[in-house]
Design a protein that fits this description.
Layout: E1 2-3, E2 5-7, E3 17-19, E4 51-58, E5 64-70, E6 76-82, E7 85-90, E8 104-108, E9 113-116, E10 121-122, E11 126-127, E12 133-140, H1 143-146, E13 149-159
């Protein structure tokens, strides 16, 4: 099986979370002389009273998805600070004998941000074009200590990294 990569947008995030980057804003900066621009993207990110942040560096590697994780106590915000990547995700569900339904691959470009709903399966993003990538990750404090659930996929999945 091979996952074809789709662009990050409202449709590609349906059932797993939401895109935070306003459509049309990537690569389009404010015009000279305008001072500033502010867009409310999402009024409540749902991260609770005690969020924590971390920096996730993603090394270049083969596009084979063999494992996924989820968090049952928090959504997760991802902001692509460096590089374009492919993020593999699946809707919230119970894994059945190492299988998950609805796995998809979403291209996340430098400067884009998204929130994964609580329980959404995901894995470390795969950098595109042979260059490592970096993400800002924000979720509930102590998530790494008490809210990691893993699924070893019964059959690894090839991921398109173009």
């Amino acid at each position: 099986m091979e996952l074809k990569t789709v662009e990050l947008n409202g449709a590609s995030m349906e059932g797993i979370g939401r895109a935070l980057t306003p459509i049309g804003k990537i690569g389009s900066l404010i015009a000279a002389g305008e001072g500033f621009s502010y867009d409310v993207i999402d009024g409540d990110l749902g991260l609770g009273n005690s969020p924590s942040a971390g920096c996730l560096d993603c090394g270049v590697r083969e596009g084979m998805l063999a494992k996924m994780e989820r968090h049952l106590k928090t959504p997760e915000l991802l902001f692509a600070m460096e590089g374009d990547s492919v993020l593999c995700v699946a809707p919230p569900q119970e894994a059945v004998k190492g299988k998950l339904r609805g796995i998809r691959a979403i291209r996340v470009r430098k400067g884009q941000a998204l929130i994964l709903d609580t329980g959404t399966w995901h894995w470390i993003p795969f950098p595109e074009v042979g260059v490592p990538s970096r993400f800002l990750v924000v979720f509930r404090s102590k998530t790494g200590a008490d809210d990691l659930n893993f699924c070893d996929l019964v059959e690894p999945i090839s991921v398109e990294l173009t």
